[in-house]
Write a structure and sequence with these properties.
The chain is α+β, with helices and mostly antiparallel strands. The protein is 33% helix and 31% strand. Strand 4 and strand 5 form a beta hairpin. 42% of the residues are buried.
Length: 201
């Protein structure tokens, strides 16, 4: 549906249930989600989540992330809490296939989502949340144009301690200005697992 340099975004299909369930039984995937509790998802819970995403709605748009060269499903991404009056939305993304972490696939999907949000949905501001220890994701967000707007101090308990949760955002005007330089820089580095909660990321 939407093609980048490394990935394409397509509709989420119910027959991907097994793949999604496998991702959300992986503790390394779960620990990077915000603000979800680190616990495995059952196939029943995942089926309900996929059905909810497939239905969509006025306040959310969900996509599956596929590798452009071979079509493999590696993650999903969304714009959620879409506010038509204020033209804002929250961005969520998860790369469930760990073999694709740190190789630019997540960054490519993020650029597609920003382009879609600003050019097709006419958004003014896109925001996200990320845990402070997810430094790879934070660097990738910065390169694409996101800036830190604030943080919730010690808001999430993970790995036996409390971590800050960062709020980051990019404005439409900022994205337009930063895009040429940020695009090449972000290709080399993708977030391991950016913001989002559960499989609705």
């Amino acid at each position: 549906m939407f093609r980048g340099q490394l990935v394409e975004l397509k509709a989420i299909e119910p027959d991907n249930l097994g793949t999604y369930t496998r991702w959300f039984q992986d503790p390394e995937v779960l620990r990077l989600l915000t603000p979800a509790t680190v616990k495995p998802w059952s196939s029943v819970a995942e089926k309900r989540a996929i059905e909810r995403m497939a239905r969509g709605g006025d306040d959310a748009v969900h996509f599956a992330i596929h590798v452009l060269t071979d079509g493999q499903l590696i993650g999903n991404c969304s714009l959620q809490a879409i506010d038509g009056k204020n033209r804002t939305a929250g961005l969520g993304i998860v790369i469930g296939e760990r073999a694709y972490w740190g190789r630019g696939f997540g960054s490519d999907a993020l650029r597609l989502m920003l382009r879609y949000g600003f050019s097709e949905l006419n958004l003014h501001r896109i925001w996200l949340k990320v845990l402070a220890f997810n430094e790879r994701a934070i660097r990738a967000y910065n390169k694409i144009g996101f800036v830190e707007e604030g943080r919730l101090r010690e808001a999430v308990y993970r790995d036996g301690r409390y971590w800050d949760e960062l709020m980051m955002a990019v404005l439409r005007t900022e994205y337009g200005q930063a895009r040429p330089a940020a695009k090449a820089a972000a290709d080399a580095e993708a977030p391991a697992l950016p913001a989002g909660g559960g499989s609705g990321a």
